Amino acid sequence: MSSKASRSSALSNADMATNPMFQRAVERVANFKCAQAIRAGRLRLVQEPNPALPMRFTPRMDLVDDPITNTRIAIFELPGIKTADVTLQIQRGNLIITGERRPPPAVQKALESARTSLARNPVAAANSIAAGDMADDSESSNPSPTPSLAFHELRFGQFGRAIPVPEGIKESDVTAALQDGMLTVTWPQNPAARSVQSVTPPVSPITGTSAQ
């Protein structure tokens, strides 16, 4: 009798594990536990440095409407970016800002070290993160010390942002300047009101002082 009850219990447990409602409940509990660990400082959210999935971010922006000059001005926060790292394009009624911010050598080494550690033993790394303890267990397989990220908040990798622009805007209508880590892009609110003869295509889409 106990054997039948045991088999019945095993079957019911298997059914429960595949039940969508049970899976959602488990996911809610896991999310709650992760939130608790983050608030307690035992878990930090970091962007996984996976070379197959490049890091991406959206730069912060202020958008200003200037009725005096009949222009719209977008100011992007892009410290550490050079003019050669940014591209501006007009596509399907949108101004597209794209580029890449590369990490400094010290950060790059630490990211590569973390990537190697996670790739070697992802299950152990996941268990350590869930326990709130990211102790380095790589000494047995790699005795030489490697750089590690004690804190990782800066955003690196490819970035992009799209802003709707008025119909008729051309790339020659857009001016841009990069200075002190701030990219300022300006275009007319009403391109039809501008004289075509007065428009001089810029030699370079972005001018100004680039970050070093």
TrEMBL record:
Under Pfam families, the record lists: HSP20
The organism's place on the tree of life at top rank: Eukaryota
Q: Where is the composition biased (Polar residues)?
A: 195-212
Which parts of this chain are annotated as the region Disordered?
Answer: 192-212
Note the CDD domains from the entry.
ACD_sHsps-like
| Coiled-coil residue windows | none
Where in this chain does the record put each SHSP domain?
52-204
> Which family is it part of?
Belongs to the small heat shock protein (HSP20) family.
Question: Which protein, by its recorded name, is this?
Answer: SHSP domain-containing protein
